[in-house]
């Protein structure tokens, strides 16, 4: 029930998602009252679709990247009265509200400060495109911080933070490498981090948006650059 989650804020970065974003937001709002969408310089009618849902809307005048959109959304949500828990959630319909609820239970119980969704726990990755699976496995293998945290999935956009952890995040990687940056911050922090199994819904739409060879290469390239910059 939405009334039970008044202390939860859903942060949703949006870029050119006019076909699905309203449906995704409305589905989330049925359980979580507070949703902030960060329109990251969309060139389509995404902002207009969001305005019709009742979600909060913050707009970047130009496309700055998913990392920047998440940072903007977190800062906005942290300033809202009563906000205690913060969830990053994709706008393309891949994530499930029931997974968010399960992850929130772990944080609310005090068992962790941060819960990261994993597609590789609980045998839930069967529908993942082979290219995506290969890229994600490679990213984990290349990331010392992912190994330090014993992560199985370093690039899942579904995450839950308590207020202390959310307030301590400073995302500076604007592109896809922000996920590796978040893992690095968590590895250096005193926060307790765990993973929970989640199911990602790979629809024809989401595949067309984010499962291409170029996207996979970009993730690996940005992670490689970030690693070199720390040597």
**Which sequence of strands runs across the widest sheet?**
3-2-1-4-6-5-7
Q: Tell how many strands the DSSP assignment holds.
A: 7
Mean pLDDT value: 85
The run of helices and strands is: EHEHEHEHEHHEHHEHH
Q: Using only CA atoms, what is the Rg?
A: 16 Å
What structural class results from the helix and strand content? alpha/beta
Q: Summarize the main sheet.
A: 7 strands, mixed
Strand content: 15-25%
Characterize the overall form: globular
Separation of the first and last Cα atoms = 48 Å
Number of helices: 10
Low-pLDDT segments, ≥5 res: none
Q: Helix proportion of residues, in percent?
A: 40-55%
If you had to describe this structure to a student in words, what would you say it looks like?
The protein has 231 residues and is of the alpha/beta class. It is built from ten helices and seven strands. The protein has helices at 21-29, 46-51, 66-78, 97-108, 130-142, 144-148, 163-168, 178-188, 204-210, 213-229; strands at residues 8-14, 34-40, 56-60, 85-88, 114-118, 159-162, 193-197. A seven-stranded mixed beta sheet has the order 3-2-1-4-6-5-7, sandwiched between helices. The chain starts with 7 loop residues before the first strand and ends with a helix. The model has no long low-confidence stretch (mean pLDDT 85).
Question: Which key phrases capture this entry?
Answer:
single chain; 231 residues; alpha/beta; seven-stranded mixed sheet; 10 helices
What topology emerges from the helices and strands here?
Layout lengths: L7 E7 L6 H9 L4 E7 L5 H6 L4 E5 L5 H13 L6 E4 L8 H12 L5 E5 L11 H13 L1 H5 L10 E4 H6 L9 H11 L4 E5 L6 H7 L2 H17 L2
Parallel strand pairs: 1-2, 1-4, 2-3, 5-7
Antiparallel strand pairs: 4-6, 5-6
């Amino acid at each position: 029930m939405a009334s039970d989650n008044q202390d939860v804020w859903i942060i949703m970065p949006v870029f050119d998602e006019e076909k699905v974003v309203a449906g995704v937001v409305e589905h989330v709002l049925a359980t979580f009252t507070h949703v902030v969408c960060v329109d990251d310089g969309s060139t389509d009618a995404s902002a207009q679709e969001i305005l019709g849902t009742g979600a909060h809307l913050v707009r970047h005048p130009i496309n700055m990247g998913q990392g920047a959109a998440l940072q903007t959304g977190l800062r906005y949500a942290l300033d809202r009265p009563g906000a205690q828990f913060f969830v990053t959630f994709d706008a393309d319909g891949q994530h499930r509200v029931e997974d968010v609820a399960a992850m929130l239970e772990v944080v609310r119980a005090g068992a962790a400060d941060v819960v990261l969704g994993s597609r590789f726990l609980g045998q839930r990755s069967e529908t993942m495109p082979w290219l995506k699976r290969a890229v994600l496995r490679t990213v984990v293998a290349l990331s010392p911080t992912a190994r330090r945290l014993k992560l199985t999935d370093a690039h899942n956009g579904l995450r839950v933070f308590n207020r202390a952890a959310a307030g301590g995040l400073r995302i500076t990687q604007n592109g896809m490498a922000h996920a590796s940056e978040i893992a690095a911050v968590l590895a250096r922090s005193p926060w307790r981090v765990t993973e929970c199994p989640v199911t990602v819904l790979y629809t024809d739409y989401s595949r067309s948006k984010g499962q291409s060879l170029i996207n996979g290469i970009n993730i690996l390239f940005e992670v490689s650059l970030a690693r070199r910059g720390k040597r």
